[in-house]
Design goal:
Layout: H1 2-17, E1 23-30, E2 34-43, E3 46-55, E4 62-72, E5 77-82, E6 87-92, H2 94-101, E7 107-119, E8 122-133, E9 136-145, E10 154-157, E11 160-162, H3 167-174, E12 180-188, E13 191-201, E14 217-220
Parallel strand pairs: 6-14
Antiparallel strand pairs: 1-2, 1-13, 2-3, 3-4, 4-5, 5-6, 7-8, 8-9, 9-12, 10-11, 12-13
Length: 229
């Protein structure tokens, strides 16, 4: 536990070395039949992500909507606003729960620094993040810029948000990648997905964006842990 706290303390020190990002980032992934748009907001320690996919042939047709996610970055907590049920579930970050569940599973994450590149108009550093769990291997390329400051959470791919306790995030930040992801790419047999940063607004979002609306019933599960086997 002391080692984990020491690592996280080091990461927060790294983030504060750069100006903290405040504003709104918009990401887009164009699939063959639909387009996914993710919008990330940050104001201080508070972060929020909204996402939805619309049809490429009929942009008024919503194919999928992600429930709003609110993050307490320093507290390592996430609030899931379930629109259909009217419930707001507060939990530990997904990464923290996953670490508990996979404590006995051998997994490794490595980060390779490719070098500087200019992507979508921003000076970036190109990294390759590879994860291995058993026989499963995941490989993601990310291009990160420090020109926009340091966000509390990195939007790493489709519905993929790397919080400070994600092992991929820990290793990426340690390699110098504490910044805004400008582009992310995943290539696998029969699959190729590219996410691009398509909009930046540096106006600080209103505090009300990070509050749980009154119509939701709050259920605090942040003390829950994954049962050990």
């Amino acid at each position: 536990m002391k080692i984990i706290l020491s690592v996280l303390a080091g990461l927060f020190a790294c983030w504060t070395a750069h100006a903290q990002f405040a504003g709104t980032l918009t990401y887009r992934i164009i699939h063959p039949t639909s387009t996914l748009t993710m919008v990330y907001y940050q104001n201080g320690n508070n972060a929020r992500v909204d996402a939805q996919s619309v049809s490429n042939t009929d942009t008024t047709k919503v194919v999928n909507v992600q429930d709003t996610l609110l993050f307490d970055v320093a507290g390592r907590k996430m609030t899931h606003l379930q629109y259909k049920t009217g419930m707001a579930f507060i939990t530990l970050n997904t990464a923290a729960l996953a670490q508990q569940a996979m404590a006995s599973t051998k997994s490794t994450v490595t980060v390779q620094t490719i070098g500087p590149e200019t992507v979508n108009g921003y000076p970036c550093t190109h990294y390759v993040v590879e994860g291995k769990t058993g026989n499963y291997v995941s490989k993601r390329e990310v291009w990160v810029t420090t020109a926009l400051g340091t966000p509390g959470i990195q939007v790493a791919g489709g519905y993929l948000y790397w919080t400070p306790d994600f092992e991929q995030e820990i290793k990426l930040v340690a390699a110098g990648g504490a910044g805004v992801v400008v582009k992310s790419s995943v290539t696998a047999p029969g699959l190729s997905t590219i996410m691009n940063l398509v909009g930046v607004d540096t106006k600080t979002p209103a505090a009300s964006l990070f509050a749980v609306p009154s119509r939701y019933t709050v259920v605090d599960r942040s003390q829950w842990t994954v049962p050990s086997h």
